[in-house]
Amino acid sequence: MPDNSHKQSPTCLSCGAPLHGRYCSHCGEKVIDKQEYQLIQFLRHVFHAFTNFDANFVKSFVLIVRKPGFLTKEYVIGRRKPYLKPVQMFLIANFIYFFLQPYTGVNGFNTPLNTQMNRLTYSTLVKKIVNNRLSQDDRSIEEYSKKFNEKSEIYAKSLIFVMIPIFAFLMYLLNFQAKRYFVEHLIFSIHFFVFYLFYFFTIFLFLFRGLVFLVYQLSDKMALYLFNDTVFAIILLPALFYYFYNAFSRLYTNTKMVKIIKSVVLAFGLIMVVDLYRLILFFVTFFTT
Description:
Order of helices and strands: HHHHHHHHHHH
Strand content: under 5%
Number of helices: 11
Helix content: 55-70%
């Protein structure tokens, strides 16, 4: 009888670890057999991947709105497979936002030069910098604004990532006594901006624009007032408070009063984070135009 004891067990093609069964216990790579190359098997895999992604997609985004902080808690404790990954969710929300944002009639995160120079807390500084640039160029403010706004719209789509670690650091400071890892706050920050992008800057802005349109039929001045950033912020802040308060209830063991205070601080802190993002966006655009 032949001795097979000297034969080596098959190894994983991806990581080289010994295989025991159809999946590598080290990296999870699947052992492919000839049936995998049949068209019917391929179509089954495609169907499964699409339906599984669709189910996770719907579930994950519904939970972001209905149960703030839930996905962060699930991720931290290690229950991750039933949901979309945080970065994956953010990329999808980011794509949806920048695809639909032009139809809302609101700039959102993109900040034109006129807004940078006249409507923000640091506008005096921006105006001084821009005027100094124009005094040395032959361009008019109209010519420069056109080029600036084109660049700003492009950079706004990628620089939005900048707000995530800044907001996470704010969360870290606000919950320092909890002794959580910074990455945990980073995951919370990603989930929050998914909520912020997907919910407010798509669904909410369409509803808000519809409201402005209805009021506009009655009064032009009232519509312009309603569309003001300050009024928009007043409408937005209660929703932010809802998200933060419920998230704190799931993630931290604070008293009711502490959760209220932290939620208010974080809601107003977000406004400062957005302003900082806009300032960064200005300098990146300014130095490339």
